[in-house]
């Protein structure tokens, strides 16, 4: 499924895609990924649901203006505005990684309304951030100046570590491509530099106020965010269910596609 639509918002150009018929399902990607992580799942569900994909500003096919904020707060406002633009009434929302914190903040702070929320290996509550992540936060502008081939090598090693089974060459190529351009390289380090865990602390304080069905899904072998964090998150959300998937890392979409597709369809069909 392609992101061939455009929504202009506060100087940003947000790429999105829409397909299918039926109840609305909106997918949110994480970092350093794009809507491509959900495209196969959206295609598979489009016979029964109207599916929506979007690239957050600063990611994928969306604009990457260095003057525009790409932190959790800005992305949550963008998501709330996009839902309004689509004229959706309580869609089902499915989020991965950074998209978890964005979708939670959109609901808790921006007051976006969902029918349900599935959180897959999400960044949502503190602590978070790998050793590489913390290093980049200390040296964002220095890394902007890396030779392109060094940047790409670092990026490939970093993204590869998110998968438990290992990514195929074509999968890895697709995931790193948006960051391997003159515009993409500084955008990659910029989104890490603007990562602010204070937003996650706010989420942690407020998630107990959620009043909607929530399912937390986690890869048992997630090396980026341990399953213990997923279990703790589920425990903070009233009535939330928790599913742990064996032989899956942080990129469950690639590590365990059959298991994730099964859990996803069962959840959306309730």
Describe this structure in words.
This protein is of the alpha/beta class and 270 residues long. Helix content is 41%, strand content 17%. The protein contains twelve helices and eight strands. Strands 1-2-4-3-5-6-7-8 form an eight-stranded mixed β-sheet, sandwiched between helices. Helix 3 packs across helix 9 (198-206) and helix 6 (148-160) crosses helix 7 (169-176). The longest helix is centred in the first third of the chain and has 15 residues, at 72-86. The radius of gyration is 17 Å and the shape is globular.
Radius of gyration: 17 Å
Report the span from N to C terminus.
24 Å
What global shape is seen? Answer: globular
Indicate the proportion of strand residues.
Answer: 15-25%
Summarize the structure.
The chain is of the alpha/beta class and 270 residues long. It has helices at residues 39-45, 72-86, 98-108, 131-138, 140-144, 148-160, 169-176, 184-193, 198-206, 227-236, 252-255, 257-268; strands at residues 5-9, 12-19, 24-28, 50-54, 92-97, 116-122, 214-219, 241-245.
């Amino acid at each position: 499924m392609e992101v061939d639509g455009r929504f202009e918002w506060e100087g940003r150009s947000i790429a999105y895609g829409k397909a299918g018929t039926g109840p609305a399902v909106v997918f949110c990607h994480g970092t350093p990924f794009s809507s491509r992580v959900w495209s196969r799942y959206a295609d598979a569900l489009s016979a029964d649901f109207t599916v929506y994909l979007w690239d957050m500003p600063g990611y994928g096919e969306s604009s990457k203006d260095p003057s525009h904020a790409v932190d959790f707060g800005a992305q949550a406002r963008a998501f709330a505005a996009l839902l309004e633009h689509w004229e959706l009434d309580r869609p089902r929302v499915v989020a991965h990684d950074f998209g978890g914190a964005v979708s939670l903040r959109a609901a808790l702070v921006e007051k976006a309304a969902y029918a349900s929320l599935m959180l897959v290996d999400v960044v949502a509550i503190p602590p978070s951030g790998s050793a590489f992540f913390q290093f980049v936060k200390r040296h964002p502008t220095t890394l902007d100046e890396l030779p392109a081939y060094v940047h790409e090598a670092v990026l490939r090693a970093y993204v590869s570590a998110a998968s438990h089974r290992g990514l195929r060459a074509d999968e890895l190529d697709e995931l790193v491509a948006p960051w391997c351009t003159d515009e993409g390289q500084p955008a990659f380090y910029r989104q890490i530099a603007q990562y602010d865990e204070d937003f996650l602390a706010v989420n942690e304080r407020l998630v107990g106020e959620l009043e909607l069905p929530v399912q937390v899904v986690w890869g048992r072998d997630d090396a980026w965010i341990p399953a213990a964090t997923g279990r703790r998150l589920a425990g903070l959300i009233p009535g939330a269910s928790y599913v742990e998937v064996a032989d899956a890392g942080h990129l469950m979409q690639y590590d365990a596609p059959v298991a994730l597709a099964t859990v996803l369809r069962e959840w959306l069909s309730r």
